[in-house]
Amino acid sequence: DKKPLAESIAKVEPGGVVLYENSLVTELPDRKDVRYVGVPATAIAERLGNPKGMSVAIVGAIIALTDMFPLDIATAAVEYYFSHKGLPVDKNKAVFIEGYNELKKNL
Known about the structure:
- By secondary structure, this protein is mainly α.
- Strands 1-2 form a two-stranded parallel sheet.
- It has helices spanning about 5-10, 40-45, 55-65, 70-85, 90-105, and strands at about 15-20, 35-40.
- It contains five helices and two strands; from the N terminus they run αββαααα.
- The longest helix has 17 residues, at about 90-105.
C-alpha cells in the first residue's frame, strides 16, 4: 500500500530529504521541493553477509546525511551496542560503514 508512504512524505518540509531503501521503494510521490536519496541497504547487508542488517546500513546512511557524529565516534557506538547485545560486531560494523559510505558517495 503506497498510502502510508505518501502520507509520510507529505509531512516532509520543503527542502527536506527523504531517505529510502531503493529496492523496497520503487515509486515515490512527485515532489520537486524535497530531495530523494535511495540507499541499497538490503543489497549492502546481503553482500556483506549480514542479511538482517538492512536497518544498520540505513542508520549509517542517516549518520552520513546528517553529519550527526564523526564516523569514528559513530562506529565506536555501533561496536559498543552490538557487543553488549551479543550480536556480531564485525558484520554489523561493516554494514554500518558501507551504508555511511554509500550515502556520502551519492550526496
